[in-house]
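Marked as duplicate of an earlier ticket. Keeping the data here for the record.
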Amino acid sequence: MALVLKQFCVEAFTIPTSSMHPTLIGQNQAPDGVGDRILVDKFANWLRDPRRWEIWVFRFPLDRSRNFIKRVVGLPGDFLKIGSEDGDIWLARRADAPYEIARKPRRVRESLYRPVYPPDAASDRVKDMSFDGEGEAKGIGSRWFRVEGDNPTAFSLAALDRFAYRGGAPATLVASHPIHTSTDPDTWHRSWQDGPVARDIRVRGRLVPEAGADVPPASEVHLAWRPDGYYEYRLTLGSTPGSSTARILVDDAVLREVRLDVVWDGRHELAFELEAVDGDLHAHVNGHELAVLPDGRPFRRRHAQVAQRLSLDASGAPFTLADLRIDRDIAYQNSWSPMGSAAEDGVAIPAGKYLMIGDNQGDVGDRREGSYDGRKWELHTITLRDGTVIRHDDQKSPDRDLDDETGETVYSVTDADGVERHWHANDEDPDVPDATEWTPFVDRELYVGRAFLVFWPAWPDPPGRFRRVR
């Protein structure tokens, strides 16, 4: 029975590498050396085809004796490009059709967001810091935020994720540094960071009224994200019916706008969330998604590197901006094998084949090498004098040894079928040069199953890393 379950239903696998970091933790990066152990639904492989954004285990096309795990990004029939500056996946159903962004479901976005703010290491050192007359925070706060406008002392910093607004005249809280595609909580305070500026982010927080405070008749809070100097994604929370809105602006002109059925009256706590991701503005209030607005932008190979701006404007009722969280979306790297033209032209995915990409884009922590996936796979071919053809992963050079009897060099390598191959140096056909070809896709027949659960390690601090795979 156990054999039947393993063969057809569920099988456990260990994550060996960092290619899916931080979604899945590999043995080579876990502090305790214990990689995530996952359960794979093999029955799904019999019932249906892989779906975009799912995580699947498959046999490596360049060495079928090895199991790989990646995320399904490209499906059969897709024409696919990666935006060089926005890091989004762009799709078309025909080569001459307009490209549109592939939108990730909410559950997938949740797993792919990378934290930017607040920084964990410094939070316990922050006590009670205020902004001075120049709008700069005294001490650590100035590394992340500043105040603009005629009311520079309107905000005080109680903790890195708590800003108190005194109320009254308008004031603006502005991020001090751009968010890049490599930004994390330990680097955002630096004036210099790696990678292009990020386009897709999420901002969350709570507006907590000041107990017993006088509440003026008109209060407003505006959260605005301007990633590139052209587009602006804005969430407005107002104190009168109809004054709360979600809107997208282009060159300061309203492109899309919807009124939200919510009122910020300065008396009741309100949780908000703005997602500017995958070409959409998502507006959430008190846990409910109230609006989704598409920005409709076309594919452009390059975007102008114009100064970003993330700001929060407040006026009227005093409140505390609590539990402030800023995350950035995954930015896929438009980095492909030099043997093709995918970086410029994209790829056309044939029938029965898929494009798999790892979540590690070289943008998290110390794992800057990124995922080895379909963008970089290359198959090396060696032809012998007797017509035998040996194909193997170009990243794995053949091992060398000496034949004890003849003293000749003997090569050995695992070929694409997972078979160990051996040959002498003089076995190679001198008239047929070695060849290397880009091999980016995974055949449908190579899939093993869909990853759905991390079940270990769950000890010594339950639940440990136990979680669903999304």
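See parent ticket for discussion. The first strand starts at residue 10 and ends at 14.
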